[in-house]
Write a structure and sequence with these properties.
The chain is an all-alpha fold and about 230 residues long. Helices cover about 75% and strands about 0% of the residues. The protein is built from 10 helices and no strands. The longest helix is centred in the N-terminal third of the chain and has 25 residues, at about 20-40.
Length: about 230
């Protein structure tokens, strides 16, 4: 059985097939926030943005989730000079991630044994990659951090890969200087989350009505032009 090829992940209008896409968006974002909680409680290193959030948490009285949301809003301000426009998915990203990550930290105990922490780390990285495929696949528009990446790439002409790398290094360095946890989990996340997301994306990426119609039309044309065998 072969996996379907993923469609474009560009924005699809809010009203299209809302009953299918909206639950997918919220489930994906909730799982993403919970995956951050798993990696934080593992205490073996977190992804670069969580390193920054942890570092800021050491210097404020705010919760991890609240800081996650506040950083999302600040990043959103950087969209203005890049001429990026937020969508419903952008706002949902900020709100749901803040709530679900704090809820996860309330539910998951601290100071667990090392084997349990390893399990939390591996599960958190896996769940993070899956959740990205789920919420991005709903195609409600990019989150604040993804929009910063695509907007900076469009404004500078540099590749998304280079822009993403520069952003991640900058965020990681700032978070480390502020006292955020950097460790094997940070490396595992960098190596595993991309392939995990790519693996699951074909099943969760929504195909718009126009894309489905185009696929049907291409299939019909291929059938009409196929050679007839005697």
């Amino acid at each position: 059985m072969t996996r379907p090829s993923p469609p474009s992940l560009t924005y699809v209008p809010l009203g299209e097939h809302l009953r299918r896409r909206l639950p997918q968006l919220f489930i994906g974002l909730a799982l993403y926030g919970f995956s951050l909680s798993l990696m934080v409680r593992a205490s073996l290193g977190v992804n670069p943005w969580s390193v920054l959030n942890e570092g800021l948490e050491h210097h404020t009285s705010l919760s991890f989730g609240t800081i996650t949301g506040a950083v999302g809003v600040l990043v959103l301000l950087l969209w203005i000079p890049l001429k990026q426009r937020p969508t419903f998915g952008t706002v949902a990203n900020i709100v749901v991630l803040a709530c679900s990550s704090d809820l996860g930290l309330l539910l998951i105990p601290e100071h667990l044994a090392f084997p349990a922490r390893v399990g939390l780390l591996v599960g958190g990285v896996f769940l993070n990659g899956l959740s990205v495929a789920v919420y991005v696949g709903a195609r409600f528009g990019p989150g604040p951090r993804d929009g910063l990446m695509t907007g900076a790439s469009a404004a500078t002409g540099l590749s998304i890969r280079l822009i993403r790398t520069l952003i991640e290094i900058t965020v990681l360095g700032a978070g480390w200087l502020l006292g955020g946890s950097v460790g094997v989990g940070t490396v595992l996340y960098a190596l595993a989350v991309g392939p995990t997301t790519q693996f699951f994306m074909p099943w969760f990426a929504y195909r718009s009505a126009a894309e489905r119609a185009a696929t049907v039309a291409r299939s019909a044309r291929a059938t009409r032009t196929a050679p007839v065998r005697a």
